[in-house]
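Example 3.
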Amino acid sequence: MNNESKLDTVKGSVLTNQKSTKVSPSVSFLNKKKWKEAGLFTLFVGPVLLAFILIVLIPFFTGIYYAFTDWNGVTGSVKWVGLDNFKYLFTEDKQFQQSFILTTKYTVVAIILTNLIGFGLALLVAQKLKTKNFLRTVFFMPNLIGGLILGFIWQFIFVKGFVSIGQLTGIPLFELAWLGDAKTAFWGIVIVSVWQGAGYIMIIYIAALQNVPQELIEAAKIDGANRFQVLRHITMPLVAPAVTICLFLTTASSFKVFDANLSLTNGGPFKSTEMLALNIYTEAFVNNRYGIGEAKALIFFIVVAAITVLQVTISKKREVES
Amino acid sequence: MGNRYTWRTSIVEILAILLGLVFLVPFYYVLSNSLKPFAEILTNTSALPKVLMFDNYVNAFEKLNFLTVFKNSLIVTIGSNIVLVIFCSMAAYMLVRTKKKISNIIFMTFVAAMIIPFQSIMIPLIKTAGTLGLLNSMWGLVFMYLGFGSGMTIFLYHGFIKGIPLELEEAAIIDGCTRFGVFWRIVFPLLKPITVTIVILNSLWIWNDFLLPSLVLQDPELRTIPLATFFFFGQYTKQWDLALAALVIGIIPLLIFFFTMQKHIIQGITSGSIK
């Protein structure tokens, strides 16, 4: 009732508007309409566009400028230094180079393990198991919790839990000081991120597996195909688009790893597990060398952007083909 | 075929359950040790607690200042979700319905900016935020989440609104409804499925986010759960009894959210990732 009466009054006002505009020449009517449209457009798009420009665009572009300066954030002077920061990064900054190589290595390992385990879990949960809903929840659960808290949980597991398991079982692998050694600490971060990411990837693979027509699988079985042949020649090609999505999702998130790195090892021992994102953070907010930090951030951006553009091109190509 | 629960399936089932237990082991260690006194944690890490002791929780709850911290997380997450849903759905709607070059340019800018990693923005952002007076304020943080979340939120709304037929809106306009009214009364209710997806994805991100709030909120009174956990861990290193209880307290709200919204969360992730 209330709504209707409101609509009526709105209708009335629109009608009177039309009457009054009929009197004025049609050119000004068009102008007025244009202005009204522009006003509406600003009203709808303006607020979020303003936040986006202030929070994302302006810092992004000023950041690119700062990458070519000696800005330290404290003193007011900002001096243009050209490519000096980049020269320094590629010739002198061994820590940055090491972080870059380490992050690349970590990304490759994390992509392979997360996807293999995620796909395996999806296949497992897709079976006719009585506990499949429960298992799906269990495998997914670590993903809910942010990387920071997960890193702390695993810090306890590596420092105390593993030692205790080692004493109980006598397996030497558990008796290592996992976070005290560069090699095992690296694998520690890998374990945490796979434990977190596999469940997420699993959800996407489950959706893809559900879209594989059951008749195709039955038909192949009737034709005498065994389980592995069905997986290799029917299931795998049909879930290929999901594989592309998952590969790039894990690539981008692994390359940007920060939270788990900070809370699990904080780059230690002796900065041997400091990944790129943490390296940028320390350069800027611990060493206060903003200019160099921005140069690193720019390189970081270029790599991430290249990965994403590659992803979009490949998945577009796939869409056209299929 | 369907009712064939063979010995093979039961072996797979047993293996799957074992694997599930391996996934849960870290939770077991944290939960069981959080209920032990400190000495018992060191000597009997793997065993179940001899007596259930909740002192650690009482202690951690107070030292974390958990009620304040929880309230802060809630304000930031809910506030950000509200502004993101309102302003991004409005913007996406206008960008879809205004068939002009400018709409395309704006939309493409939002989408393209999604690839910028946070680390590439954070240093100048903190400087800009300082001059705008956004530092050390929860509303400043909410405004920042509006900026950072806008790309994905507009992208998801944009795709959904494209599929809504124009006829409904035209009928309403003929009936004399304003554009504003058309959007809120007719279009927005139709966006409910994608709004649920968006709210879930944004909530998990904002609730767990550490780096941005750590740069923005310096006042201890304003800390969110991840921030409080971080400082707590720094302060009580090696005091595992307190630290573990604090971790469990930090996780509980997420678990409650998950078990009440499980179906929507799984659906949300599926539809959010495929787009």
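The mean pLDDT of chain B is 90. Residues 65-235 of chain B form a domain with the MetI-like fold fold (CATH 1.10.3720.10).
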